[in-house]
From TrEMBL:
Matching Pfam families: NrfD
Lineage of source species: Bacteria, Pseudomonadati, Pseudomonadota, Betaproteobacteria, Rhodocyclales
Main location: membrane
Keywords annotated in UniProt: Cell membrane, Membrane, Transmembrane, Transmembrane helix
Signal peptide: none
Name of the protein: Tetrathionate reductase subunit C
Length: 365
């Protein structure tokens, strides 16, 4: 036994969950959130929701196709993805997610194909450089209402499973009290639906003439409800932490409360949510502004949880400092994912112009 005292001054730790993970959780959340917004008009046939639902389905498809790329990049070696299938681990939610994602994407792609096929056929009949390709794709089979509902049901099952696993796999990390809170999956879900509505609002504003005012008001009201839900969940989280009724929430609050950066982040989140709620209620016609605010809140919530959560030390005192690198694991990766999303948007809207998606009445529907 030695009489010496060993003092650990600092331990350098690499960030385990990179910005790739933030992008994946952001995009897959937008996808299943926008998918849910597509149901009223396309599946339940609610009047006034047809254009909204079609725009939301486009948003769900774009984000759903882009999200897995960010997930593969987060594996550091993308070839590792097949390990999830070759070495299935029933006790791992991440392992289950490798099966949930294909279920959701398969249902989503079939659902989108069946929903957009009539519009694609009409667009092909009007001629153009891509008319031959579009006509062959559009008339590939007989349109069936039952098939569309069945595909939407498959996508719904997949969306529910994806929403469940993306929330629970983070919540189960006991080493980080900020993540290990039962309300975290609920916060992910609420902000995902808000983000899906926000992206649909942005698409609606991009339509010629600034979009349908009635559709903008409907989405603004729905977005206001999500902001109320977000504020309520945040208030419950704070009460549970301050009162001590929930030890895990109390421990998480104790870790972040002394930090000025975390205090600023909390104030920022509350103000952004309150401003979005106020604009949605008082100025429902400002679709672009509230849509961008909703997208901002969905992104910042995930960035704060994942990156900010890793700035809290597992052992030791103080807080770690993270600086976004400029390379593939940082800014370049974010820009690359955004570029892929834009490429898919251009490709899909070349076959299906945005106006025909958002205004089916003007496309002969």
């Amino acid at each position: 036994m030695t009489p010496d005292i060993v003092e650990t001054v600092n331990v350098a730790r690499e960030v385990a969950w990179l910005p790739w993970a933030v992008q994946y959780f952001f995009l897959i959340g937008l996808s299943y959130g926008a998918y849910l917004v597509s149901l009223p008009g396309l599946v339940f046939r609610r009047r006034g929701w047809e254009g909204i639902s079609r725009l939301a389905l486009l948003a769900a498809l774009l984000c759903g196709l882009t999200a897995p790329v960010a997930l593969l990049a987060d594996l550091h070696q993308p070839g590792r993805f097949w390990h999830f299938y070759a070495y299935f681990t029933p006790s791992s939610w991440m392992s289950w997610g490798a099966f949930f994602i294909p279920v959701y994407l398969t249902g989503l792609i079939l659902y989108a194909w069946l929903a957009f096929r009539p519009t694609l056929a009409r667009h092909a009949d009007e001629g153009g450089r891509l008319a031959g390709l579009a006509r062959r794709l559009a008339y590939g089979g007989h349109e069936s209402r039952k098939a569309l509902v069945a595909a939407a049901l498959l996508a719904f099952i997949g969306a529910a499973l994806v929403a469940l696993y993306t929330g629970v796999e983070v919540m189960l990390v006991r080493a980080r009290p900020l993540w290990h809170t039962p309300l975290l999956p609920v916060q992910f879900f609420v902000t995902a639906v808000a983000g899906g509505l926000g992206l649909a609002l942005v698409f609606n504003r991009a339509l010629p003439g600034g979009g349908d005012p009635a559709a903008t008001r409907r989405m603004a009201i729905a977005l206001a409800l999500t902001q109320c839900a977000a504020l309520l969940v945040g208030a419950v989280w704070l009460v549970l932490g301050m009162s001590g009724m929930s030890p895990v929430h109390a421990q998480a609050l104790a870790e972040v409360a002394p930090s000025a950066n975390w205090q600023l982040s909390a104030a920022w989140a509350v103000v952004a949510t309150a401003v979005t709620l106020a604009l949605a209620l008082l100025r429902p016609g400002s679709g672009l502004a509230i849509g961008l605010l909703a997208l901002h809140s969905a992104w910042m919530m995930r960035w704060t949880i994942f990156i900010g959560g890793q700035e809290l030390p597992k052992t030791g005192a103080g807080y770690y400092s993270y600086q976004l690198p400029l390379g593939p694991e940082g800014l370049m990766g974010i820009v690359g994912t955004a570029g892929l999303w834009i490429f898919l948007f251009v490709a899909l809207t070349t076959l299906l112009p945005l106006e025909r998606i958002g205004r089916p009445d003007r496309a002969g529907a």
